[in-house]
């Protein structure tokens, strides 16, 4: 069990039973009594009317790549890639806020594996075909025998504040009017996470920061990010200069402004609120977790 108060997609780690991945006899027996998380190539999964993830009996699942996720209450859980067979399939963005911690863990793992397999059908060494091994947790090159493992790419995401009542938020070019989020970016080769936080904030806004502190992490399987969440304190001049590439605009916003902002949804534009800041990310995102954590405290450490 991880932190029950952490970011929503990070609260539960089920038993992955990794030792079973190479036990073909056990896997064959386990399949007979397994429950299955179906994932489409586009990362949708079937849900019921209460937005609970449908775990189907293995016997009712047609053939597809079969990957072993782990064991929950003595029940083996697999994920299988399948095309949607009804109107009730939803993406993680659509149902993420409604999933319980176990459902979120299983679906995020299943999507992460599916995304990796889709992108790694060829050997990065020689270009030959690779095949699944280890119940979906390895791919092996048919020519040179090299083994390849699922990728997790570290990214940093940070709430930058001024130690008083304002936090730095930015708006990406594609997000629509009034929608702001915390700044974020990928960790580069040879770089620490803390250095990446400082570099990304400076590159995007020309703002200097200090007191960079790790807060929490959350997987984001589109396609393979592990978001490392930080807080940081403004160091010096708050003036913003945009790099003109990543951010359409950025600004310092007060807690009162953040409190009146609405949740983003993919379905509708964020309505006018009378403020430049109209929307912030939905509650299952780590960006929102960092914003809410800052919003609810007056401690300068946040
Ligand atoms: Zn190869």
If you had to describe this structure to a student in words, what would you say it looks like?
The protein is built from six helices and 17 strands. With 302 residues, it is an alpha+beta fold. The strands form five sheets. Strands 10, 11, 12, 13, 14 and 15 form a six-stranded mixed beta sheet that branches. It has a four-stranded mixed beta sheet with strand order 3-1-5-4, with helices on both faces. The chain has a three-stranded antiparallel beta sheet with strand order 7-8-9, with no helix packed on it. A hairpin with a 4-residue loop joins strand 10 and strand 11. 36% of the residues are buried. The site of zinc ion has 8 residues, from loops.
Task: Give a quick rundown of the structure.
It is built from 6 helices and 17 strands.
């Amino acid at each position: 069990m991880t932190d029950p108060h952490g970011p929503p997609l990070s609260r539960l780690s089920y038993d992955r039973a990794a030792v079973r991945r190479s036990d073909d006899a056990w896997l064959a027996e386990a399949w007979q009594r397994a429950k299955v998380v179906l994932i489409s190539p586009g990362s949708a999964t079937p849900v019921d009317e209460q937005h609970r993830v449908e775990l189907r009996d293995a016997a009712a699942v047609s053939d597809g790549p079969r990957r072993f996720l782990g064991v929950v209450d003595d029940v083996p859980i697999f994920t299988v890639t399948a095309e949607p067979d009804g109107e009730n399939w939803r993406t993680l963005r659509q149902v993420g806020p409604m999933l319980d911690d176990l459902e979120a863990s299983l679906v995020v793992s299943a999507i992460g594996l599916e995304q990796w397999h889709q992108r790694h059908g060829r050997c990065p060494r020689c270009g030959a075909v690779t095949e699944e091994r280890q119940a979906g947790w390895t791919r092996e090159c048919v020519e040179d025998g090299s083994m390849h493992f699922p990728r997790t790419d570290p990214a940093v995401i940070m709430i930058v504040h001024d130690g008083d009542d304002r936090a730095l938020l930015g708006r990406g070019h594609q997000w629509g009017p009034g929608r702001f989020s915390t700044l974020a970016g990928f960790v580069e080769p040879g770089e620490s996470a803390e250095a990446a936080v400082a570099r990304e904030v400076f590159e995007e806004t020309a703002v200097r920061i200090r007191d960079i502190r790790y807060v929490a992490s959350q997987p984001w399987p589109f396609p393979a990010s592990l978001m490392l969440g930080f807080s940081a304190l403004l160091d010096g001049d708050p003036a913003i200069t945009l790099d003109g590439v990543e951010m359409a605009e950025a600004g310092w916003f007060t807690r009162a402004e953040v409190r009146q902002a609405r949740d983003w949804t993919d379905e509708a534009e964020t309505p006018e609120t009378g403020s430049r800041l109209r929307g912030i990310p939905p509650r299952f995102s780590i960006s929102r977790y960092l914003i809410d954590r800052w919003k609810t405290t007056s401690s300068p450490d946040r």
